[in-house]
Write a structure and sequence with these properties.
- The chain is an alpha/beta fold.
- It is built from twelve helices and nine strands.
- The chain has three domains: 135 residues, 3-Layer(aba) Sandwich (Rossmann fold); 72 residues, Ubiquitin-like (UB roll), CATH 3.10.20; 70 residues, no CATH class.
- Helix 9 crosses helix 12.
- The longest helix has 20 residues.
- It binds iron/sulfur cluster (2 copies).
- One iron/sulfur cluster binds next to helix 11 and helix 12.
Length: 302
């Protein structure tokens, strides 16, 4: 969703050294990047070359998780003879998170509150790279994109190209849904970071890479218990935060402390909520906490 031209405008004093193409598929269930690489590999490489030309970057990497052998082969074939390297990454969630991806490929850590450019990196997603190719080579604006329609609640899951703005209902009618009483929730995005749709009559938008329909059987509601300080949330956090502590700080409105403990570094991956045996929805608290912290910061500036 972040404007591509802003990413490509390297500010004075900064230097872009690497272009990283995020092909690590951000969440389980989502397979649209994989499909794009299988079917549009040459066009994606043209998109990469356009970005390299625009930013002056001399080296590009395509980060693909090891569970996509066909896409790896396809992209290796397509980059042959170009200064572009396919990097095979360990399959783990959230490998597709920007900072994780940069570290996996360059072994450089983006500082807390920093941007990829702070370590010389520019990161683009596979679909954006393809859209850049279409914009420059065909003069086609971003009016359509790829999406994965998935989840146990979808009768015929698959990947499709759709016109941006199409109602979620129209897309899901196309693939068919199981009986309404079996559906737990429908998400914009994947099962870990997706946002529940309050209504199926809502339109899709340009960042919509998936609609996931979870059934009650696979996503049973967890009983909620008090925190037992088991530290499972700490062990799984890819950013090395202390989610149980951050939650307490946000709930007590101790925003200064929460910021000091890295609230804004949370990438909202949902791993802590998923791992918590007490059923605590930690990530929901962080999403709200970040919004409040930003608002307070804005008010303080005025
Ligand atoms: S995983 Fe849940 S129960 Fe365990 S420390 Fe974290 S918040 Fe508490
Ligand atoms: S959602 Fe939880 S696990 Fe993921 S980065 Fe934030 S605190 Fe860490």
């Amino acid at each position: 969703m972040f404007p591509s031209h802003v990413k490509m405008s390297v500010p004075e004093g900064k230097k872009a050294e690497y272009l990283i193409i995020n092909a690590a598929e951000c969440e389980p269930y989502i397979t649209i990047d994989n499909r794009m690489m299988l079917e549009r590999s040459k066009e994606i490489v043209k998109g990469i070359k356009i970005i390299m030309h625009a930013t002056g970057v001399k080296k590009a990497y395509i980060g693909i998780e090891s569970n996509k052998p066909e896409a790896i082969e396809k992209m290796k074939e397509a980059v042959s003879g170009e200064p572009i390297e396919v990097k095979v990454l360990k399959t783990k969630y959230p490998q597709g998170a920007e900072k994780q991806l940069i570290y996996a490929i360059t072994k450089k850590e983006v500082p807390s509150g920093g941007l990829p450019l702070d370590v010389g990196a520019i990161v683009f997603n596979v679909s954006t790279t393809y859209a850049i190719y279409e914009a420059v080579e065909k003069g086609k604006p971003l009016i359509e994109r790829g999406i994965t329609l998935t989840g146990e609640g979808v009768k015929n899951p698959g990947n499709f190209i759709y016109r941006i703005g199409t109602l979620a209902k129209d897309l899901l009618d196309h693939v068919g849904l199981v009986e309404e009483e079996k559906i737990d929730r429908i998400l914009y995005g994947g099962p870990m970071m997706g946002i529940p749709l309050p209504s199926i009559e809502l339109p899709t938008f340009k960042g919509n890479n998936a609609l996931t329909v979870m059934t009650k059987e696979v996503a049973p509601k967890k009983e909620l218990y008090p925190c037992i300080r088991c530290s499972k949330c700490v062990q799984v956090c890819p950013i090395n935060l202390m989610p149980y502590l951050l939650k307490m700080q946000v709930e007590k409105r101790e925003y200064d402390k929460a910021l000091e403990y890295g609230l804004m570094d949370c990438i909202e991956c949902g791993s802590c909520s998923f791992a918590c045996p007490a059923g605590i929805e930690l990530v929901k608290t962080f999403k709200t906490g970040k919004k409040v912290a930003r608002a307070l910061k804005g008010r303080a500036k005025k």
